[in-house]
Design goal:
Blueprint lengths: L7 E3 L9 E4 L5 H10 L3 E4 L4 E4 L4 H12 L4 E4 L2 H13 L3 H9 L2 E4 L2 H9 L13 H9 L7 E8 L3 H9 L3 E11 L4 H12 L5 E4 L2 H13 L3 H9 L3 E4 L2 H8 L13 H15 L1 E4 L6 E4 L2 E4 L2 E4 L2 H11 L8 H8 L7 H15 L6 E4 L3 E4 L3
Parallel strand pairs: 2-3, 2-9, 5-6, 5-7, 7-8, 9-10
Antiparallel strand pairs: 1-14, 4-8, 11-12, 12-13, 13-14, 15-16
Helix pairs in contact: 3-4, 3-5, 9-11, 13-15
Length: about 375
Amino acid sequence: MATVPPAGPLTGAGPLTGYTVGVTAARRREELTALLTRRGAHVIEAPTLRILPLADDHALREATDRCLAAPLDYVVATTGVGWRGWMSAAEGWGRGAALTEACRGALVLSRGPKATGAVRASGLDEGWSPTTETTDGLLAWLLARPLAGRRIAVQEHGVRLDAFAAALRERGAEVISVPVYRWAPPEDRGAVHRLLDQTVRRHVHALTFTSAPAITALLAAAESEGLREALLDALRGDVLAVCVGALCARPLTELGLPARYPERGRLGTLVRLLEDTLPGRSRHEVPSPLGTLTIQGNAAVVDGESHWLSPLGAAVLRALAEQPGRVLSRAELLRAAWPDASADEHAVEAAVGRLRTALGPHAALIRTVPKRGYRLAAG
């Protein structure tokens, strides 16, 4: 997995060209990566968890048998993938028709559109779904009704819903927890390490999350590597955290960290939120003799042609672009762009050389002023 794209020219520019985005999702990772890549982003894929299906698990089979032992009053569908997995596993055990009939005799509650779609695809109708698309909304609806003696099946979604079940049991309900899948450590721990490294070094512009457990797992990985405070500091400022919804964002908001999420929890709306937000955090436009120079993230776009830059190269170019036409000394550039306080002025000369190489035919934008420093050619 490359941590940064190679510097050099690109074909065309998209709304996310120049931005490096971390993808922590295990499920639908390919779809999210494709959406981001098509818009020009460089994606670092590092699933912080993986899903273990429980099709052969004794706990799932036992829960299904309990659901079939007596009529159900309510069935809670929390995720589309979990519902489909449950129905598929029951079909494999020869209990598919019986489970469908048991659910048909109950009121099916779905957490959101994805769960609703899966319920309908199994030949059933949902009785109610909260507009908030949260388990809290489902719980509030149930607790507003008499529950003593009611049998409620709750399809879990990766993590146990112990508090949800306990609240129902306190009201006298019999709750059957149905563990369709659960989270396990990632297959590639090295990918998570590299994502953390790039994040704390501010080489990543945004992290995307599609589940709360993925956030918790990333924080735990950072803790184990002694990087927790560095990660939190990055998320407080330079690195944008974008979540698929409010429930997903909860581990961040509970820590007082800023987290953005769309009103509707969809991958497409998550990506559009990135498109709307990232340029406002890191974008400069400067007129130049070669056309408008746009710096966004780690890319320079000149007259429609894009060039990927190294993070250091982008920082140098941004420092020059903030004062176009003005000569900046090597010492000034060191203070403005270098994360390493031990770097000397020779490092500036080398970085400018690499920046010019990355800019290719637009290298003339960076002018050397002998014995004084460098300036950006102003239009």
